[in-house]
Amino acid sequence: MGDAIERWSEYRGEPDAYAIRLTRGVEREKEELDRMLTGVSVGWPVHRMTVIDRAIMRLALFEMLHVEDVPAEVAINEAVEIATGFSGDESPSFVGGVLRGAKSQFGEKVEHG
Asked: What is the 3-class SS of the chain, one letter each residue?
């Protein structure tokens, strides 16, 4: 995802600090995020998820785990909204279900690390 920041900068200018924080954080924690997502998405390992859904859920789960001023439910709702606009018809309910499962399974860890 380091390349994503460079590509974004070439076409759209410098991304804001929060976008950079999220991009670098997801890149750094990708394996752990994928392990957690696979654990809660019964029958859907991360490699079988669509690229868009996977990216949306990684981002939301990173926020849930590492950004104190973003409540888990806000991250989930934003992820569902993004999935509604950018992914398939089934994606919003899938994304919401997986992320709510993560919130439920990982409890306090998801409520800010």
From this structure: CHHHHHHHHHHHCCCCHHHHHHHHHHHHHHHHHHHHHHHHCCCCCHHHCCHHHHHHHHHHHHHHHHCCCCCHHHHHHHHHHHHHHHCCCCHHHHHHHHHHHHHHHHHHHCCCC
Q: Residue 7 pLDDT > 70, yes or no? A: yes
pTM: 0.87
Q: List C-alpha distances in Å: 98 to 2, 16, 45, 50.
A: 26, 28, 11, 13
Q: What is the pLDDT of residues 103-113, one digit of tens each?
A: 998 765 565 55
Yes or no: say if 82 and 51 are a contact pair by the CB < 8 Å rule.
no
Specify whether the CB–CB gap between 106 and 59 falls below 8 A.
no
Q: Which domains does the chain have, with CATH numbers?
A: 30-109 (1.10.940.10)
pLDDT at 6 over 50: yes
